[in-house]
UniProtKB/TrEMBL annotation:
It comes from Pseudazoarcus pumilus. This is Probable protein kinase UbiB. GO terms for cellular component: plasma membrane. The gene is ubiB. Pfam families: ABC1 (PF03109). It comes from the Bacteria. The keyword Cell membrane applies. One of its GO terms (biological process) is regulation of ubiquinone biosynthetic process. It is a single-pass membrane protein.
C-alpha cells in the first residue's frame, strides 16, 4: 500500500515537474545540471506555483490540506508559490450515505432513525476529514451532524509518514532545504491534522468560543449537544444564514457590508487580545451571516491560542505600528528575545520603516498583507529573527481577514478601525481597571496565604536562630538580617491585608 502510494507521488511529481520547482532554486548545483541533462525533453508552460497546486490536487485531500497550510508560511515560500497555494480549495466528493449511517449506528448502538427524529441522507458539506448532514433531535431541535470519514486515520498516517520521509531527504540532500525547515513544517501540519481527527476536541473548541461570545452583538456560535457527541461524531445547533461570499444575497437581506467588514475586524481583535483564543480557519466557506447582520462561525477544528506575553507583545507592536513608532516596534522585538540582543536598534528600526511606511493612508484595496508579511519575514531573516510557531496561525487568520475585507468593503481603513479597540484594550490591561481585575484574580490565593503568614514568619525566625547558634561569629550579621526580614514580612503582611480589604470593598461595598 505504502509503496504504491509512494510510486504515485513520484509519478505525479515528475508529471508536474515538481523536481524542477526544487532544483530551480539552486540551478547552479551539480545535481540540477545532471537532472536537467537526463530530463531535457520535458517542457512546462505553466508557472511553478500552478504546477505545484495542480500536483497537490491530484494527490488527494491530505496533500491539499498540506498545501493550504504551506500557503500560510510566507516566511518559507516564494511569493508566487504561496499565492498559488492559497487558491487551493478542499473540494472532496462525499462518502456514501450508507457509510455515514454505519458510523452513527456503531457509535450510538441503535438504528439512526431511532436516535434522530429525522436524518438527511444527503450531505450538505464534504471535506477531507469529515462531512456534515442535517438532522433533528427527538424533541424537534434542528442540528448539524459532523461525521468523520471512515478509515481516514489510516490514510493520514500513511501520507504523513511519506511527507516525513520526503522532508528528511530534502534536508539531507539539499542545502537550501535546511533553511526551509521541512521536518518542522510537516510536524506542525501533522499536529493540526491529528487535532482535527478528534471531533470531541472540536466540540470543546466550539463550546469555548460560544461561551466567549455569549450575548455578543457581533458573532453567533452554535450550541454543542454533548449527549450526542463522540470522537467520530459531533452534533451541534443548525445555523441559518447567508454564506459571506454571496454579496448579492447579503445586500438582498439588508446587510450593511461596510458595517459587516468593520465587525469582522473587531471580532478578530476581540478573540486575539481579549481571549487569546481565536478561530484560525476563517475562510468564506466557514462563515455565514445572520439576517440581523451578525457573523455565524462554523468549523472549529483549527483554533489558535496566545498567552499573556504574546498578547501584550502583539498589542504593543500594533499600537506602535499604528503610531508609526518604528523604534518601539524594534525595541519590542529585541526585549521579547525574538531578535538577538546584539541587534543595532537603529538598523532594525530603519528596515521596519522601509516595509511599513508605504502602506499607511491607503484603503484595504491598495494593500496586500501577503506581500507586506513576506517583506517583514525577509527583513526578520536578515536580522536573525526565528520563526515563532505560536504566531503562524495568526498570520494565516490575518490573510483570511484581508480576503474577506477586500470582498465586503475594499475602502475599509483597517488601521482606523483597529486602533481604538487596541487602545481601549491596552487601557483595560494596564490602567486602573486592569489593576482591579488582577486583584480579583489573585484574591482567592490571598485567603490561603494570609492565615499562613504568622507561621511563615515564625519558621523564618526559628531558622535564623538555628543558624545563629551554629555560627556564633556571625551573630550580629544574622540578627541584623533577621530584623530586616521581619520588617519586610511585616510590610508584605500589611500590603496583602490592604489588598484584601480593597477586594472585599470591590465585591461587597
Amino acid at each position: 500500500m505504502r509503496l504504491f502510494r509512494l510510486a504515485r507521488i513520484v509519478f505525479v511529481s515528475l508529471r508536474f515537474g515538481l523536481d524542477r520547482v526544487v532544483l530551480d532554486v539552486d540551478a547552479s548545483g551539480r545535481l540540477a545540471r545532471v537532472w536537467k541533462f537526463f530530463f531535457f525533453w520535458r517542457r512546462f508552460s505553466q508557472p511553478r506555483g500552478v504546477r505545484l497546486r495542480r500536483a497537490l490536487e491530484s494527490l488527494g485531500p491530505i496533500f491539499v490540506k498540506f498545501g493550504q497550510m504551506l500557503s500560510t508560511r510566507r516566511d518559507l515560500l516564494p511569493p508566487d508559490v504561496a499565492d498559488e497555494l492559497a487558491l487551493l480549495q478542499d473540494r472532496v466528493p462525499p462518502f456514501p450515505a450508507e457509510q455515514a449511517v454505519a458510523v452513527l449506528e456503531a457509535f450510538y448502538g441503535q438504528p439512526v432513525d431511532e436516535v434522530f427524529r429525522r436524518f438527511a441522507r444527503e450531505p450538505v458539506a464534504s471535506a477531507s476529514v469529515a462531512q456534515v448532514h442535517f438532522a433533528e433531535l427527538p424533541d424537534g431541535t434542528e442540528v448539524a451532524i459532523k461525521i468523520l470519514r471512515p478509515g481516514i486515520e489510516r490514510v493520514i498516517s500513511h501520507d504523513i509518514a511519506l511527507l516525513e520521509t520526503a522532508a528528511m531527504l530534502l534536508e539531507k540532500l539539499w542545502a537550501e532545504g535546511r533553511r526551509l525547515k521541512p521536518r518542522e513544517v510537516v510536524a506542525e501540519f501533522s499536529k493540526h491534522l491529528n487535532d482535527e481527527l478528534d471531533l470531541m476536541r472540536e466540540a470543546a473548541n466550539c463550546s469555548q468560543l460560544r461561551r466567549n461570545f455569549a450575548d455578543s452583538r457581533l458573532l453567533l456560535v452554535p450550541e454543542v449537544y454533548w449527549d450526542w457527541c463522540g470522537r467520530e461524531v459531533m452534533v451541534m445547533e443548525r445555523m441559518h444564514g447567508v454564506p459571506i461570499s454571496q454579496n448579492d444575497a447579503l445586500l438582498a437581506q439588508g446587510t450593511d457590508l461596510s458595517a459587516l467588514s468593520r465587525a469582522g475586524v473587531e471580532i478578530f481583535f476581540t478573540q486575539v487580545f481579549r481571549d487569546g483564543f481565536f478561530h484560525a480557519d476563517m475562510h468564506p466557506g466557514n462563515i455565514l451571516v445572520h439576517r440581523d447582520g451578525r457573523y455565524i462561525a462554523l468549523d472549529f477544528g483549527i483554533m489558535g491560542t496566545l498567552n499573556e506575553e504574546d498578547k501584550n507583545y502583539l498589542a504593543q507592536n500594533f499600537l506602535a505600528f499604528f503610531k508609526r513608532d518604528y523604534r518601539r516596534v524594534a525595541l519590542a522585538h529585541i526585549e521579547a528575545g525574538w531578535v538577538p540582543a546584539k541587534t543595532r536598534v537603529e538598523d532594525f528600526e530603519a528596515a521596519i520603516r522601509t516595509v511599513c511606511e508605504p502602506i499607511f493612508d491607503k484603503p484595504l484595496k491598495d494593500i496586500s498583507f501577503g506581500k507586506t508579511l513576506l517583506r517583514l519575514f525577509q527583513t526578520a531573516r536578515r536580522f536573525e529573527m526565528g520563526v515563532q510557531p505560536q504566531l503562524v496561525l495568526l498570520q494565516k487568520t490575518l490573510l483570511n481577514i484581508e480576503g474577506l475585507g477586500r470582498q465586503l468593503d475594499p475602502d475599509l481603513d483597517l488601521w482606523k478601525t483597529a486602533k481604538p479597540f487596541l487602545e481601549r484594550w491596552m487601557g483595560e490591561q494596564l490602567g486602573v481597571r486592569g489593576f482591579v481585575q488582577s486583584l480579583q484574580t489573585e484574591a482567592p490565593n490571598w485567603a490561603t496565604t494570609l492565615p499562613q503568614l504568622p507561621r511563615l514568619v515564625h519558621a523564618a525566625l526559628v531558622e535564623h536562630e538555628r543558624q545563629r547558634r551554629g555560627r556564633g561569629d556571625e551573630l550580629e550579621r544574622l540578627v541584623a538580617a533577621q530584623r530586616r526580614q521581619g520588617r519586610w514580612l511585616a510590610l508584605i503582611g500589611v500590603a496583602l491585608a490592604a489588598l484584601l480589604a480593597l477586594e472585599l470593598y470591590t465585591r461587597f461595598g
